[in-house]
Amino acid sequence: MPLTESAPLPDFDACYRAASGRDARWDGRIYLGVTSTGIYCRPSCPARKPKPENCRFFGSAAACVAAGFRACKRCRPDAVPGTRDWDARGDIVARAVRRIRDGAVDTIGVSGLADELAVSERHLRRFLIEAVGASPLQLARTRRAHAARALIEETELGLSDVAFAAGFGSVRQFGDTMREEFGMAPSAIPRRGGSARHIDPAAPVSDERPRIALRLRTRAPFDAAATRAFLAAHAIPGRDRIGAATAAADGDAGSTAHAVDVPGGTAVVLVSWDDVPPVAAQAGQQTVGIPVVLTLPSLSDAMPAIQTVRRMLDLDADPGQVADALGADPRLAGLLAARPGLRLPAARDPHEFALATVLGQQVSLAAARTLQGRLAAAFAGATPGRGGASPEFFHRVDVAQIAGHSAAELQATLRITGARAETVRALATELAAGLDLGTGADRARARAELAAIRGIGPWTVELVAMRALGDPDAYPAGDLILRRALGVAKPRDAELLAAPWRPFRGYATQHLWADFLAEATRKDTP
Length: 526
Fold this sequence. Notes:
Elements: H1 12-20, E1 31-34, E2 39-41, E3 55-58, H2 61-66, E4 70-71, H3 92-101, H4 104-117, H5 121-131, H6 136-154, H7 159-165, H8 171-182, E5 211-219, H9 224-233, E6 240-242, E7 255-262, E8 265-272, E9 287-295, H10 302-313, H11 319-326, H12 330-338, H13 350-359, H14 365-379, H15 399-403, H16 407-414, H17 418-432, H18 443-451, H19 458-467, H20 480-486, H21 491-498, H22 505-524
């Protein structure tokens, strides 16, 4: 099966210019391997640049390790936040990379991932080596190693707990992989002493409900106020808890808490927004840390929870890349300047989001939250494994349970129209039958299958593509607020205006919605 798209690196001269100029805009997109030292660096590494004949360039950290290089101890290329470049593509390789990033190799193995993508293991391995420079196992191993190093540096977990939390099968495998990736034993990695402990000083690690306090890194600038406003505007009763927007002496008034579904049950993430510096104070910083506390069913759920939070907060976005792509349009230039760190938050669970979007059609945000809260309360699934991390939050909705009810029963339970109840039931039936709306889905197929459900139109399809499928180019051209912001009357006109914004029309939409969303949040949220 041929690849539908390729992901070639820029030519050698362009890569070398980026490295010679220490251009931080390329950090996380290209990696420099130095053959004379066996070290790989980010382009912005302050070390003296090697001669061209000693340089090799790669598209991923895993490819560097596969080629025999170790991470630089000075510039820490392993600490660079991820990239959304793979999210802009829909081919087999991009879908595989997204699923590996989400932990698929740890949960279903390479064979399971190949089955999901309808290719053989051999073909999957070949595709990834040709396009990324590393096999599925190498990509997964590097992902685990980088996560483990962050846990060592940011938390006070013991090394065996770190190995377990990062998804390693044994302490020996953990040690061998860390030496291969970083050229040092895990015990030699410096610890910063739990830099996020002040978020929740009573955060012990226990066998029943382990808690991990850490800072999740993202590229600066990061607009914490706008992200928090988005989460508040879309909070679902029983699944989210929004604190007051101002700090208080007793701790978490400015925090938000969210249920996050993981293999072992339901985790809870507490985000301390008051501890994130405002955008103006982030000037000159390459990254900013978002303080979170994760309360988990078990330590093995740490990696899935962290990845879900990264998607929810869009922590792998590159604001500079978005600004370069959109800033030339006079309609967007002022919006980008006003909110330089605006993100495109994703759904924590595709089933929940798709059903919530149908319930939210043609009603206000406040009314949508009420309906979504009823759905969460009435159809929360049984918590698997060792149970939820908190009795205050519901587990994800059970689509099979919803599909098992008649439209009349759903209408009475949710207090919605009969037509809306029919659509909810039809969508739940398709989801229970295997409709894939996750990050590794075939986006064209998912869009077509959603659009075929009676009661689901283009607006809903594009919202689901944007938040659940994670497509940064999703664009609900028919949205009324969007068209008002653009000053056009017809969806076709909105489509034409947005053509130059590809592949980041989703980010453009978020900027065009931002003022409305901020005003709606002030009006009808606590």
